[in-house]
Amino acid sequence: MKHVYRILLICAIVGFSAQTADAQWRWGRYNDFERLDTIVSIPKYKSNSLYISDNDFYLRFGFLGIELEIEDDWDRDWRSRRRRSRNVEYYEQHDHGTLKGLNFEYGLANFLDDGEFPSSSDLYQVKPIGSTFVGIGWNRISYVSGLLYLDWGGGLTWYNYKFENAATRLDPNGGQLNFVEDLTINSAIKSKLKVTYLSFTAVPMFDFGRGKRLVRVYEEDDVRIAASTRRGFRIGVGPYVGLRLSNKAKYIFKDDDGRDKVKDKGGFFINDFRYGMRLQIGIDGFDMFVNYDMNELFEDGRGPQLNPVSIGVIF
User: Which residues contact 129 (CB under 8 A, 6 or more apart)?
Assistant: First the structure.
């Protein structure tokens, strides 16, 4: 019965891990885990793997910087096994090759109008806290030389601009995008613009920790889980580009029938491409970013001259 539960658990994990990032380091032999507080250079090894035979099985995958490894020998009596339970720590050094991972970014979004944030007299002024930037992407960190690394990858990013005036409406009629106030609504609740991009970044980073990572290993019987956190200070500036996938405006208000909402997916003369510069700063396990679009959000001459800007953290 114990093996039945284990098989069911493995099937569930394998199905979930099919969408996860590749493993970030190679598992060493058992004796390697005894090397506490030492520098160990561990190259990138294989991606997610599953092995099943008549006598044993082996599962290994990585997700968000966490490694999980399960192995068993089915022809052994589980009552005769020696129980293992230990937690250890050691350091690894990323001094060659490329590490793979999955990044999640979250922050605040706004506009710059001629280098300044829009004023209260502008209908496109956004809520400073309610407007957000969200990103998810497959990340790569490649060693170049000395302190220099290249942090690069691609994924999806979402800009959610929530306007300060809930009655703000986007009017693209007449070949020009105008921001107007809907005075026919008595109880406007929310007005926002959402833009989705396929994005790619390439940021050269100076890592003064030289890729050093603290690895924590938790071992219980045949299951080993490891999580790593970066150590030291790092900073870099580099470009990014994006291709617009979709955009839509959403308006929420109250009328005689109660709460209602309208979604408008019409053309708002938003540029198909975006490009800009990105600043990344990190210390130990904390990383943050600042993005600045060098081209304007709307097509030239079709709307306000607004440059998107965002700031947030990387998980």
Answer: 108
